[in-house]
Every structure is written in C-alpha cells, then in structure tokens.
C-alpha cells in the first residue's frame, strides 16, 4: 500500500517513515507538515491511504480531509491522534475518515492500515463494523442495544445513538424532540453510569458494541 504521512511534528513523521517504510507491504510516497501539504500530496500521489495528524498549525487535518474527500469520496483517510484529541474524533468519522490511530502506538499502525485496505474502519487500531455516519441508514432506537449500555434508560440510549451518529446537542434536541438542557442532563447521566470522560468515548463505546 502507498501512504502519505502528514504531521507537524517532524520527529513523528521521520519515525513513521522509517518504521512504516520498513514494512514490505508499505511504501511512504510523501510526507508533509500541515493540511495544505496533505491536499497537495494527495493530488500528486493519489495514495492508498492518507495518514494525517488532526491538530496542526495553519490548516488542520480535518479541513484537509474534507477537501480530499470532496474531490475523491473513495479516499481512505486515517487520522493520527493522541488521547487529548478525543473531541475531534466523532467529527473525523462523520466526515468520512476510515478511523484514527494513536500515534504513540506505532506497532499497531501497520496491521490497522491493512484492515483499512480491507474496507474496515479502525478505532485505536481495532476494527469496527461499518456504520452510516450521515444518518441515512441508521435510525435511532432501531439497533440492538450493546451490553455496555444496559444500565441506560431508553431515552439515554437514544441520545447515545445520536451521539454516535455525530450529532451535536442542538441536533440531538431537534431529532429527539427534547430541550438542549435535557440533552446535556442525559449525557451527564450516561457518562456517570458508564464511567466515561466525554461524548466521544460514548460514540466509541457504541461503535465497538
């Protein structure tokens, strides 16, 4: 597979180029430091996978991925992130990215990329079943409830489903016919019951379920 690697941390880029390039099935065809580089490199090389950092100075990875996917909806974009980037992950997946990988877990990256090439999404290196992030094929309340959500009320689980579809609080309120304050209360309850930190972790738990 042919990759481009874009990250504003030159050490990360150089390390990944060496480690990934040493894999017989991987060729790193270009590297960059920001979103503009990512767009240009994708246009130049049309790689099998674009491996992009989410947070970069200037143009970030999300903006670059949006342009790449608008030009080529079949593009496989995978984001590199750290645990501190959680708030971006649902937006990235809703955008059409094929997943995200923890940049410090280098050993997990090559097998995860192989799964992306097989058509899977990967979260933290683990494959998940595909899901319609645009809400065109997943209706809230219609999917089997994962065991991890067993303690939630029906209304809380509905909110969790809508979070997993990438909706913000205002969109959830409109879709589920409830006030934004009620949505926030449900999210707080879900986080407490499931011992999670934020809404992205709710979405990840749902997708893995």
Structure description:
46% of the residues lie in helices and 15% in strands. Helix 1 (10-21) links the parallel strand 1 (2-6) and strand 2. It is elongated. Strands 2-1-3-4-5-6-7 form a seven-stranded mixed β-sheet, sandwiched between helices. The chain is of the alpha/beta class. The chain contains nine helices and seven strands. It has two domains: 2-128, Rossmann fold; 147-208, Winged helix-like DNA-binding domain superfamily/Winged helix DNA-binding domain (Arc Repressor Mutant, subunit A, Orthogonal Bundle). The relative contact order is 0.11. The chain has helices spanning 10-21, 35-45, 61-71, 86-95, 109-117, 154-164, 169-176, 180-194, 199-208, and strands spanning 2-6, 27-32, 49-53, 77-81, 99-102, 121-123, 126-128. The two termini are 29 Å apart.
* CATH fold title of the largest domain: Rossmann fold
CATH class of the largest domain: Alpha Beta
Mean pLDDT across all residues, rounded? 86
CATH superfamily of the largest domain: Response regulator
Annotation field: number of helices: 9
Which outline best applies?
elongated
Oligomeric status: single chain
Number of strands: 7
Distance between the termini: 29 Å
Rg measurement, Å: 18 Å
The level of helicity is 40-55%
Structural class: alpha/beta
Strand fraction:
5-15%
Give the second-level CATH assignment, the architecture of the largest domain: 3-Layer(aba) Sandwich
- What about the largest sheet? 7 strands, mixed
